[in-house]
Amino acid sequence: MSYNVVPGVDNRHSAIEMSSASVERPPGRSVRPATAEPAPVRWLLIVVAVGFLTLFLFLPLAAVFAQAFQRGLGPYLAALREPDARSAIRLTLLSAGIAVPLNLLFGVAAAWAIAKFEFRGKSVLITLIDLPFAVSPVIAGLIYVILFGRRGWLGPWLDQHNIQIIFAVPGIVLATIFVTCPLVARELIPLMQAQGREEEEAAVVLGARGWQTFFRVTLPNIKWGLLYGVILCNARAMGEFGAVSVVSGHIRGLTNTMTLHVEILYNEYNFVGAFAVASLLTLLAMVTLALKSLVEWKARQGQAAGPVVAEQP
Amino acid sequence: MLARAAYRRRRRRILPGFGLAMGFTLLYFGLIVLIPLAGLVLKSTAMSWQQFWGTVTAPQALASYGLSFGASLAGAGLNVVFGSVVAWVLVRYRFPLRKLIDALVDLPFALPTAVAGIALTGIYDSNGWVGRHLSALGIQVAFTRLGVVVALTFIGLPFVVRTVQPVLEDLDVEVEEAAASLGARRWDTFRRVILPELWPALATGFALALARALGEYGSVVFIAGNLPMRTEITPLLIVIKLEQYDYAGATALAVVMLGASFALLLLINVLQRRAGRRQPAFGD
């Protein structure tokens, strides 16, 4: 090898010659770059990928709408106007309306503490925040039944004071909060860690108060990530099934959320009704995904146009 | 050492709000998550050891672990194979509707599990769009163990794709060029240059999909048929025990599941540290 490697100009010259030779290709016949697969392999992989996604994603998605509209628009709308369906929609909106703002507060507080400060046990806390995701939703419901149920730890006391949590709305809200509580935090922690704390420190040094710093410096930097966290948290809160099913007691018109209403209708073989309500939840999921794409696009734009983001420590 | 501690303390004081933020975080998380979970574990200690062991090793329980674990492994395995093909295709090739398909990969994160359950049952039962053709071949999906695998594959689908995708995007093409210029065929380059880079992401994606599938309830209960000893997953068994007011039995099974989840969470943490970056975890 070493006999023609002469240090200096000659060597570089030969490298340039080599690369220009590889660029010039015989005309008429396209040559596959060395880092690409042959066209048949490429198309086979695309077909396998799209086929897999069709079987597991696209067909179920299409099936929801096909079944919801199988008897046309009239029965579809009637299923949504039914009083039980409307009360289920109201309850779902209520529980998401309580759970999402609370989890937003939690997410911002946790991300502020974790991303802007050093303290012992930080990595333990970050892992702990993932805990609700690792726990089965059924267990998420169960822990509140054990705590607040009639035979639970606080059951007798709650009974005496006539407070009902399990098989009532508070239990549904609690279970929803549990299942969705890491979502905003998870979105914000890596984002705020990557941005560092120089900008906030500069603001404080220049005399800004704490909240001023947060609203004028931090919030504009994290707004897209925050928005996505809230959107996803909302979609999950409205769509939660397992945890809510354990604590709800399935009282029609009272403690049925949309997903529980879907289950009841489906088990009664009222497929149009079940899929009609399911189609609303599916639309919500699709809006969530669309907003996610928008947020990612905005974040990329902001990164391209904005100041240099501080390196992650 | 002392100087570092002093430096840290000084640094902590520059920005305000640590006490408030940390206090609220711990209070909220403690009240919502940690204390109720501790209550569950405490409840299980009220049982005698024989009682606990008898419940968690009852034949119905053992059958449910087998199904939950086996079907979750199968689903996560399918996702490793097909998820990495999807990630590869989305990163490396350009084809119509690519961006739309890319966005839809996250659907299982956003779609309520109950909706996924009834939709999958609808297309895989013997009258469904896909099930009709499979049942002509003698394959029943809905209301069998295969149905459980289908639901758990759907649930875990984004994890492998979303952990492998960023790694593929960051791969240096120059390394592949070097391999090619040294005479490697494309398949060799893939096997010996690209694949070793992907292993940590594949392992993380597999573990995330597995963890998610183990606890899954909503999508499975519709498609499984829920026959005792055959198509009953462990979370369903917990619900059944609760409906019979057997709180102790439900708690015992829940503790077993919690143990498995914690073990997986630790494993995922180790895998993510090995990979040297924080992979997107559940829900991202």
Oligomer: heterodimer
Low-confidence stretches of chain A: 1-25, 307-313
What fold name goes in the CATH topology slot of the largest domain in chain B?
A: MetI-like fold
Beta-strand residue percentage of chain A: under 5%
Task: State the gist of this model.
The complex is a heterodimer of chains A (313) and B (284). With 313 residues, chain A is mostly helical.
What does this entry look like structurally?
The complex is a heterodimer of chains A (313) and B (284). Chain A has 313 residues and is mainly alpha-helical. Chain A is 75% helix and 0% strand. The two termini of chain A are 43 Å apart. In chain B, helix 7 (113-124) crosses helix 9 (145-170). By secondary structure, chain B is mostly helical.
Task: Present the secondary structure layout.
The complex is a heterodimer of chains A (313) and B (284).
Chain A: H1 9-23, H2 39-68, H3 73-81, H4 83-116, H5 122-129, H6 131-134, H7 137-148, H8 155-160, H9 169-180, H10 182-195, H11 198-205, H12 210-239, H13 242-248, H14 258-267, H15 271-305
Chain B: H1 2-14, H2 18-45, H3 49-56, H4 59-92, H5 98-104, H6 107-110, H7 113-124, H8 131-136, H9 145-170, H10 173-181, H11 186-215, H12 218-224, H13 234-243, H14 247-275
Helix pairs in contact in B: 2-14, 3-14, 4-9, 4-11, 7-9, 7-12, 9-11, 9-12, 10-11, 11-14, 13-14
Question: Any key phrases for this structure?
Answer:
heterodimer; A: about 325 residues; mainly alpha; MetI-like fold; 15 helices; disordered C terminus; B: about 280 residues; 2 domains; 14 helices; about 0% strand; globular
